[in-house]
Request: fold
Amino acid sequence: MPRKVISSSGSPVMVATMDDISGGEAAVKVEHITDATDTGKALLKASDGEAAMKSLENENGDIIVGKGMIFKADAITDEHIIEFQYAPHDGKADASIMANANAQGGAIALAVRGENDPVPVNVITLTAAGARDVIIGHPDFTLHVGKALVDISNITSFAKSVVECATAEALRTLIGAGTSNLAIGATSTTAKAGDYQPTVADISDATAFGRQLMQCADADAVKALLGI
Reply:
């Protein structure tokens, strides 16, 4: 039953005793805590970590963490893995994000699991652990790029060499095109000018009479030459 006590200010006040609380004769329960929020009560009653995280969800099933979330490892070799599991659940991730590190740097990978895969397969990997690589692709996946989604999964070694050419000169050498710096001239080792226009005299297999015909100014000149 309530009892009268003296407060810290010196005034008498009535306070409840455990007998005034339903079940007060036993241990205090979560529902007895009057200043706890629903979320706080759910956290206190969570049976495990998964249930605790579930209690943090809002009405849309989202957990809002503010500006960021930090994962701290106890050892440099520890891995952090975020798994995505979808029904029907088999205890394995359908997709995952994995990060780890060594003394040389960190790495992160995006992985997905196909219907017959036992575990997710790394498809995109970024690493600074030793070699600095961006690895996109896997033997079991095709790689599509650009707006047209061109499949470059089966790129040949020659096509790879083309992509690796650092200069136009290197590309010309690769395809055997040589160079285009020939001198302009009239010999077998020089090139014709872009505006070259051959004359009648340049036609090597034309007869003298044929050249005369080609140089006639009009039909009357042709008839005169032919004697008609």
